[in-house]
Description:
CATH topology of the domain at 298-421: Immunoglobulin-like
Distance between the termini: 132 Å
Shape: elongated
Mean pLDDT: 86
Number of helices: 2
Structural class: mainly beta
Strand content: 35-45%
Low-confidence stretches: 1-17, 533-544
Largest sheet: 6 strands, mixed
Amino acid sequence: MVEADGEFVVSVEENGGADDSDNDGICDAQDNCPNIQGQIGSSCNDGNPCTINDMISAFCVCAGASGPDSDGDGVCDAIDTCPNVAGQVGSPCNDQSPCTTGDVLNANCQCVGTPVPDGTMCDLNAQCIAGACTPIGTDSDGDGIPDATDNCPTVPGQIGSPCTDNNPATLNDILNANCLCQGSPATQITLVLRTDAFPEQTSWDLIDAVTNAVVHHGDGYNANVTTGITLVVAQGCYILRVNDSAGDGIVGGGYVLFNNDQAERIIDNAGNFSTGATSQIANSGTFCVPLGYDRAAFTSCDKLDWTSGQYVVAAPNGAVSAEWIVGGSNAVQDANSGYEFWIFDPNGSYSFRRFRSHNQSDGFGPASAIRACHMKLNNWAAASHVPANTLMNVRVRARINGVNGAFGPACRLEVNPALAACPQTQLLNIPGDPDFSCGATRMWGTGNLVHARPVSGANRYQFRFRIAAEGFEVVRTANTYFTQLNWTTLPLQNGKTYDVDVRVSKNSGATWCSTSDPWGPVCQLTIDNTPANSGNQNFAGISEDAELRMFPNPNRGDVLNFSLSAIEEGVNTVSVDIYDLTGKLISARTIAVADGNVNTVIDLAGELVAGMYLVNITAGDNTYTERLVIQP
Length: 632
């Protein structure tokens, strides 16, 4: 009470005059726990995760009953990382194995120990081996090596021991560091050997280029036989050495080494090992497997009438072409990207490599993405020139930013000026050419033709059709490089296949071209009057929906408008190659595809002299060939 003006006045609080110390809505006079929110028996939270059913006790204290401890380790389940196993993650435990130490509960609440070293005694007569207590002398895999000293106790053998992985595509199988049988990648190669008239004179060795160890050997062959020997070798590099014990070579014979995976030549010395005791690439030259994919272009492959100054051409590699960047005066012409040509004599007299990069012209045309494909023959120091009249092999590999790829398959090459002046020819065999005739099928009758590869300056061609087993032979003479299949004397018969070779003359048949046999390589021709596509089913073409336009044609050699539609999905570039009528590659371009179409202008830049050319277009798996006439 407060005294005011002699009177007593009662002070009234805002809550109606009653205190509520714990602010629980119950005045202290009626609150049996005035200093804690709630009353005796009220639920509360004592802040302990290991209690349950917390309530205010008779002493006004919040307390709960103990929570569950399923594993009885004194740690309630609420905070126990391993509630069903005594202890927590990281707690010591016992895995009951005498061959482990430092046992603890792992993250999965499993008791795991660290294995003690093999050979540790686990009792008087046993040792710890691979985490198990094993009687002394136990040999679990039966390989004769006690487990105590066997680093692969459950697999016969030890790390590094030979084994068999049952994979025919591997060699030198061994147990690896994980005691698994694993081999090195392997490939198959085949040596086709033709012996001479004397038995048991020919032998050969395949030598590992790294260890110089002989990995395969053969000898004891009969006379005048052709033998194919298939070899499985580890991927790597080797030396092939073919020997003749008489020292006079394999007269009339020789050998070819094939890569079975691609059925392509690695070394071609067929019919060419005619002198000496040993045939091998010069300077112990090696070959490596697997082969690369780069190679001579079709018209540069197996050409035996080269002259100095002609261009040996590599088939374009898109990755190499991409290193040539067009940029006007700022063009980048990569000196470290291009093609390396390797020309060698399988008998060892010559071996030379020539690299052609984007920043070198070698005298070939304007700068372009495919200029580096062209190597001018013998356009280097005379001391290293390819000698004339010696059969060579040529192989090609790409180099991209200074990194060499693998050499691709081999082709034959020979510098022979006499043969070049008046060369052999054969049925036309350029892929994609509409007049392709080598191995073709034709109908019999007027309007059906077979074509030879044209020879510049020739004015007589003779086509010889033969079936040796039937004694059949007929020769047809023409003033041009094709002949009709419609004569009446000794006509060709429906359903039969003929061997066909061709010879050519530049003096109206007085003499026939060649330094020896004028007849060129033999091709086969089948007569069939009932096939689809009028006997020309050997041709490849573009899709039926595709439309090719190439104009103006005839052309003045300046610009050529080119378009191709309906290109199959996934094809990103189209190759446009221009050949002259001798099959020489004159120009090659790679054009980008946009939305399944190509529509561009090709600048011929005066590269083509007046005459007729064949334009070969490749779009994915499809090809098409058009004639192009250049007017003066």
